[in-house]
Amino acid sequence: MKLLIIEDEKELSGSIATFLSSENYLCKQAFTFDEAMEKISLYDYDCILLDLMLPGGNGLDILHEIKRLNKTTGVIIVSAKDSLNDKIVGLKIGADDYLSKPFHLPELSVRIYALIRRQQFSSNNTMCSNNVSIDLLSKEVHINSNHIILTKTEYELLLFFIGNRNKVISKSALAEHLSGDMADMLDNQDFVYAHIKNLKAKLVEAGAQDCIKNIYGTGYKWVE
Q1: What domains can be seen in the chain, in order of their start residue?
Q2: DSSP for the chain?
Q3: 81-111 pLDDT, tens per residue?
Q4: Whole-prediction pTM
């Protein structure tokens, strides 16, 4: 899952990124209004943590831009501005949640998990497709009740495929999902093929159906 942390306090932003990275989130950061606006226009994220007071502009304007671009990204406002009016305005514009500073990082993690679960997984803690079952809380994968071990990248790939089941996903979209904003700097996207090959081999070996199909010249699709 890819997150964007929009926060001008670099020490706080770094602490959030370090903590959430340890929970297997891919974290990207923006420290100014202009940097945040550029990132949301170029990339997609599963969740955005949005501070309201930023150098160069107001976080609420960023929220307006997210909605103007028809982004389906979940947004959690994280701000020291804890007035009722700010909260109401942000939620009316389209924010999904509001957390006032200071806060405990485990609480932030739970809020992010709850938001992504509501948006992408119909509020379920378990995601199933064919004979593959994913426990979103423990991040464990089972095939026919047998536990299989996946790397972090393989797990993210599997989750992304099943979350977009029966949709063709381009190689560039997969590269961006796995590497975030670094995708544009990569010489090629061959690493995507390597990870998909390894994931397919593990699934088939464990008894899963061959669900990841290569759509020639277009990308890949998880087929149910």
Answers
A1: 2-120 (3.40.50.2300), 126-222 (1.10.10.10)
A2: -EEEEE-S-HHHHHHHHHHHHTTT-EEEEE-SHHHHHHHHHH---SEEEE-SEETTEEHHHHHHHHHHTT---EEEEEES---HHHHHHHHHHT-SEEEESS--HHHHHHHHHHHHHHHHSTT-SEEEETTEEEETTTTEEEETTEEE---HHHHHHHHHHHHTTTSEEEHHHHHHHHHGGGGGG-S--HHHHHHHHHHHHHHHHTT----EEEETTTEEEE--
A3: 666 788 788 888 989 999 888 899 999 998 9
A4: 0.69
